[in-house]
Every structure is written in structure tokens, then in C-alpha cells.
Task: inverse folding
């Protein structure tokens, strides 16, 4: 069977080699007609290509301005995005997004697409380079988005990344407890930790940062070999990027400990370290939430440590050529993204 | 001389040769088995994962198969998963691309094999092969930068607005460019394999070269050309990365307007895949399963057409 196929393949291959040489000589004379046809088609294509190309220029980049009555194109991230979750919460329209929204795949994709669409509106994280993408950040409730306004709390489209640990003494070993205390000190207070978190998209107040070398003196545990210790984290999925970056940066500084991340949602952050599941199969050492822990319901007073390590801020963006809007209230964000307001002149 | 012959057909040597043959056959069989079992394994795995969400007792709450297949809304945030419109969109974009690329590809192949001057021929072949080997993400970047602005210009000429050029038209143009080299290279092989005696006969009967090319050469090669079309269509159906970059990923549909945004099965599977769990993750396998069914059905129907026009070749 195999032989048969192989033979056939060989004969076919040799056939096609023989043929092309013969053809050229035989058909040389009869080609003129076809040649003319192809020259014509090629020329037509070239002309068409050249004549359409320049026409695209006026609409490219930021030269065109949207007319006030033009329809708004709403851009959104896909449903798994943490930025989308934060933005929908800030605009109070979870699950109510207009179905005519255009879905983009990433933060950078969002900036590029809105930068290419004069009628586009979308949202990105604060760390995005607005000017390079041709987009304009919008004020929220009259406050311009910046690191300073996020940190002093006046810019409203933000959420804290909060953490809490197990109760003091409630760990497998004293070494683990000390190591976790060291990590949280690194995450919250060291300049090195802050830079890592900032690079991963979080907003931090670097003026409060201290050099890790200075802080490490309080944590002698980091000088031991900790490769047998595994720190388990749980809670919010949104913190994953910043948390993972921080854990990976801290590993070589603290005796190469191991870590596992089981991020399932903010609700599990409290539950699995201090709440009902703290001794269950999913028990963890540090729990995270992309919101403040609920007072009363999620009482973190018994924890060894709790607090927030950075802020996640989302910014509404429009094309830089868009002069119709510079500031949005929460109600306006809600109306635009739920499809109640569909053209620029409807925004007062 | 005689002794020489005897030495050649020594029973021991014959046995050794037979043994080699057997070993080689076993190796071939093993290779065939590995590649064959890959298909079986993939299909089984996708089938098992993809059917899950429709079975009663599914961990995240089972989905109605009817709503899934006939749905016209895909909203993960609301838990609405309808792919009916996405199937239609996928068919439109893939067949639209085929419609655009097929004639150009066949004429290019005809040019390369029959008309191009000898020095141009290998050059053109290399160009086509180069096109075929460009990774799809590169096509995607090109499409996001160039095709979308072209479409945006066209739209403003036509007086309609587009979402920055992301549209069904952009998807069709992108896919047409991507499948063009596949169809061309297969058509080149098919046209090269046409018996030259057929052409000579046609010319001897007084037909012009053009008549011969279209009525004899293309007619004899159509079986192979159709094989190229089927492969090209497969690529158009399966392309995810590049398409997701220009499709706009509409949440409802179907989309028939060339300047409106669209959503294909592959871009649906890809969007947010890395960050999702539960039903939203598992349902992507169902979409994959459906995509395999769509491709299979399209190939079967194209094969049927091929048989019809190929006169039993």
C-alpha cells in the first residue's frame, strides 16, 4: 500500500518537471492575446490601487473632527478583563453594556482602535501612553486622571487592591509567618516592590517607599534557605498580574520560597484565610480583593496584617480629535455605555 | 559470473532484505498511526469537552443546545451564549474571501505556468510561496494598519461610518490575501500536471491559445484547482489571530453589511481565552466543535461541487 503511493508520487513529480520546458517553446507565439489581457488587468489594478490610496489620508490620524450628530462607537474589552470589571463598576452598568459595543482584545488594542476612530469611546488603565496612541483621557466628575488625583482619592474611577492574612499564629510554621510578614513589607513599603507593582499596572505612592535593604534588616528570615516553604494566595483575579510580578521579584530576595496562586474572585479572598473556608481544602495564607473588605461582613481585625498595596485606576478615552466631550459624570458614562446616549450632541 | 549470481540470491541475504523491508514497513505504519491518532485524540478531546455544557448536571449550569445553535446574541457577562449568528458570519467572511481570492489565484497560476516569460516564472513562484509562509499575526498587523484605513477611506467615500475600519469588508480582504497563495500554489501544480498532448490537440484543431488555456487547460486542471479552493477555505475558516484584530467582535448579528463589524467562530474562541474559567472556558470547546462541523460540511459540499463540475475526474 505504502509502496503504491510512493510510486505514484514519484511518477507525478517527474511528469510535471518534464512538462514546463516543452510548454514554453510551443506556446510562445500564441501568448500575445493573453499578455495584453493581463497587462490590462494589472494596469487597472494599479490605477485602482493608486487612486484609492490617497483618499484614505484625510480621515487618517487626528485631522478629521467628528460632527456633533455622529453616532458614538462604544469600545469594550472582552468579558474576562479586569479593567472592564473595574470600569463597569465605576460606571455602575455591570451586565448592561450596549450590545453594539465593539470588542477589543487588550489594553493596547483598545488605545489603538479608539485612536483610529474619531467617534470612538473606550477605557484603558491609567498607565497607558495616551498621546502615542492618539487618544485623549477624559475627566471623571470634573477630576483629571493622574497619579496624584488617584492617590488622594479625588479621581473616582479607581478601586483598591486589598489584602488580608490569616490570624497571627495560625500558620503551619513560624518561619512561614515571618516570611509572609517580610513579603507584605516588601509589597507595601519597599521602593523595589512598588516599582514592580507599578510596572504591572498598579498605582502606588512611591514617595513613601523605603529601600528594601533597609527593611530587610527587620526580617532575618529572608537570609535563610526557604525553598521548602510555599506561600498560598487566593481571592481576586484582578490582582493576579501585580501580585505575580511582586512574588516573582521577591523570590530571589528571600531564599527562593515557592508560591501557588489560586485566584478565583474577590469573594474568596476573605473566606479562605479568615472566613468559613479557612481550614478547608482551599485554605490560603494571603487573601486579596479588588475592593475594600466589607466592614462587618469581612472583619480583618484578627489578621496578622491587612491593608492595600496599590490602586487600580481606569480612564475613559476618546479620540484626540474629539472636541465634543472633555468631562463625563458617572451618569453620562452609564448612559453612553448602556446605549441610552448614542450621539455626541446628546451629551450636555 | 555464475558464482556471482549465486552469491546475490543467497537465502540468508534474501531474508535480511526481507527483514529490512519489514522494519521499514513497520516504521511507516508507526508514522501513519501517530498522525492518524492525533486526529482521533483531538476530535475526542474537543468532543468530550465541547458536549459537557449541554449535558444535565453540568457543574456551571447546563446550556440549552437549541439556544446555543440558534442564538443571535453572545454576552458572556450576561451568560448568554448564542452562536447561530456567528456561524452565519463565519460562512459569509470565508466564502466572501474565497469568492475574491479564487479568480485572482487561478489566473495568477495560469500566468505563472503558461504565460510568464521563463525568468519571471521562478520569481513569481517564490513570491507566492513567500506569501504563503508569512505568519498570520503579521497579516493581522498589516490588516489592522493598512486594510482598516483603506476600508475607512472607502466607507467615507460611500458616506457610511465604520468603527475605525474594523468591519466585515476588512475581514474578507484580509482572508482573501491570506488564502490567495494557498490556492495559487495548488493551482500551479494542477495546471503543470495537465497533459501537453491535450493542449497540442486543441491548438491543432485551430483553437487560439486563450481558448486552449480556459477551455482545455483549466478544464483539465479543475479537480486540482478545487482542491486548492478547499484548502484555502479551510485556512479562511480557521484563521483566528489576524481576524480578531480587524473583526470588531460584534455581540449580536448576523452581519450582512460590509461596513459593519462582525464576529467569527475563531475570534470568539480566542477572545479572553487566557483569563477565563468555568462555563465561559468550556463553551469555547463547543464553539470549536461547531467550527469543525462547519468546516467538514463546507468541504463535503465543495467536494460534491467538485465532482459535479469535474465530470468524474
Result:
Amino acid at each position: 500500500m505504502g509502496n503504491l503511493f510512493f510510486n505514484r508520487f514519484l511518477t507525478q513529480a517527474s511528469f510535471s518537471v518534464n512538462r514546463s520546458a516543452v510548454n514554453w517553446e510551443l506556446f510562445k507565439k500564441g501568448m500575445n492575446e493573453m499578455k495584453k489581457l493581463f497587462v490590462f488587468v494589472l494596469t487597472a489594478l494599479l490605477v485602482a490601487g493608486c487612486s484609492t490610496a490617497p483618499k484614505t489620508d484625510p480621515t487618517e490620524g487626528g485631522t478629521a473632527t467628528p460632527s456633533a450628530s455622529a453616532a458614538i462607537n462604544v469600545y469594550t474589552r472582552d468579558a474576562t478583563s479586569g479593567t472592564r470589571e473595574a470600569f463597569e463598576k465605576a460606571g455602575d452598568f455591570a451586565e448592561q453594556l450596549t450590545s453594539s459595543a465593539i470588542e477589543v482584545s487588550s489594553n493596547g488594542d483598545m488605545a489603538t482602535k479608539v485612536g483610529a476612530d474619531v467617534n470612538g469611546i473606550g477605557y484603558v488603565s491609567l498607565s497607558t501612553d495616551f498621546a502615542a496612541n492618539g487618544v485623549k483621557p477624559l475627566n471623571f466628575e470634573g477630576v483629571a486622571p493622574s497619579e496624584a488625583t488617584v492617590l488622594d482619592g479625588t479621581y473616582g474611577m479607581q478601586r483598591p487592591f486589598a489584602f488580608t492574612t490569616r490570624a497571627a499564629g495560625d500558620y503551619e510554621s513560624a518561619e512561614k509567618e515571618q516570611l509572609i510578614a517580610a513579603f507584605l513589607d516588601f509589597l507595601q513599603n519597599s521602593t523595589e516592590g512598588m516599582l514592580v507593582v507599578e510596572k504591572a499596572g498598579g498605582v502606588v505612592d512611591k514617595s513613601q517607599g523605603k529601600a528594601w535593604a533597609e527593611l530587610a534588616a527587620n526580617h532575618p528570615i529572608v537570609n535563610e534557605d526557604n525553598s521548602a516553604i510555599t506561600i498560598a494566595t487566593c481571592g481576586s483575579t484582578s490582582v493576579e498580574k501585580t501580585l505575580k510580578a511582586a512574588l516573582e521579584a521577591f523570590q530571589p530576595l528571600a531564599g527562593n520560597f515557592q508560591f501557588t496562586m489560586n485566584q478565583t474572585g474577590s469573594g474568596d479572598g476573605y473566606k479562605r484565610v479568615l472566613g468559613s473556608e479557612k481550614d478547608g481544602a482551599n485554605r490560603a495564607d494571603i487573601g486579596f480583593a479588588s475592593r475594600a473588605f466589607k466592614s462587618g461582613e469581612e472583619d480583618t481585625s484578627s489578621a496578622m496584617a491587612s491593608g492595600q498595596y496599590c490602586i487600580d485606576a481606569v480612564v475613559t478615552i476618546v479620540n484626540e480629535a474629539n472636541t465634543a466631550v472633555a468631562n463625563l459624570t458617572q451618569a453620562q458614562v452609564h448612559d453612553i455605555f448602556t446605549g441610552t446616549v448614542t450621539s455626541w450632541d446628546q451629551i450636555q | 559470473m555464475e558464482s556471482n549470481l549465486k552469491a546475490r540470491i543467497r537465502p540468508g541475504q534474501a531474508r535480511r532484505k526481507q527483514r529490512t523491508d519489514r522494519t521499514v514497513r513497520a516504521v511507516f505504519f508507526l508514522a501513519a498511526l501517530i498522525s492518524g491518532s492525533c486526529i482521533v485524540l483531538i476530535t475526542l478531546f474537543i468532543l468530550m469537552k465541547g458536549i459537557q455544557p449541554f449535558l444535565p448536571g453540568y457543574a456551571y449550569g447546563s446550556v440549552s443546545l437549541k439556544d446555543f445553535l440558534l442564538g443571535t446574541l453572545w454576552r458572556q457577562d450576561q451568560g448568554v451564549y448564542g452562536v447561530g449568528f456567528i456561524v452565519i458570519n463565519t460562512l459569509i467572511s470565508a466564502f466572501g474571501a474565497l469568492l475574491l481570492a479564487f479568480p485572482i489565484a487561478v489566473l495568477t497560476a495560469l500566468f505563472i505556468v503558461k504565460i510568464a516569460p521563463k525568468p519571471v516564472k521562478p520569481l513569481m513562484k517564490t513570491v507566492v510561496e513567500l506569501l504563503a509562509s508569512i505568519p498570520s499575526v503579521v497579516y493581522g498587523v498589516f490588516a489592522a494598519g493598512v486594510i482598516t484605513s483603506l476600508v475607512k477611506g472607502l466607507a467615507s467615500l460611500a458616506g457610511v461610518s465604520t468603527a475605525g475600519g474594523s468591519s466585515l469588508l476588512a475581514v474578507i480582504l484580509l482572508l482573501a490575501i491570506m488564502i490567495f497563495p494557498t490556492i495559487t500554489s495548488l493551482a500551479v501544480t494542477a495546471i503543470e500536471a495537465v497533459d501537453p498532448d491535450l493542449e497540442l490537440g486543441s491548438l491543432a484543431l485551430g483553437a487560439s491559445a486563450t481558448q486552449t488555456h480556459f477551455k482545455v487547460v483549466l478544464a483539465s486542471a479543475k479537480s486540482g484547482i478545487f482542491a486548492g479552493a478547499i484548502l484555502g477555505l479551510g485556512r479562511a475558516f480557521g484563521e483566528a489571530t489576524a481576524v480578531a484584530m480587524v473583526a470588531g467582535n460584534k455581540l449580536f448579528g448576523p452581519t450582512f453589511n460590509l461596513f459593519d463589524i462582525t464576529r467569527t467562530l475563531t475570534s470568539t474562541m480566542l477572545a479572553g481565552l487566557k483569563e477565563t474559567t468555568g462555563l465561559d472556558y468550556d463553551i469555547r470547546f463547543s464553539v470549536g466543535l461547531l467550527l469543525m462541523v462547519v468546516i467538514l460540511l463546507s468541504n463535503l459540499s465543495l467536494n460534491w461541487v467538485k465532482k459535479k463540475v469535474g465530470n468524474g475526474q
In short: Chain A has two domains: 2-57, 71-348. Residues 71-348 of chain A form a domain with the D-Maltodextrin-Binding Protein; domain 2 fold (CATH 3.40.190.10). Residues 2-27 of chain A form the longest helix (26 residues).
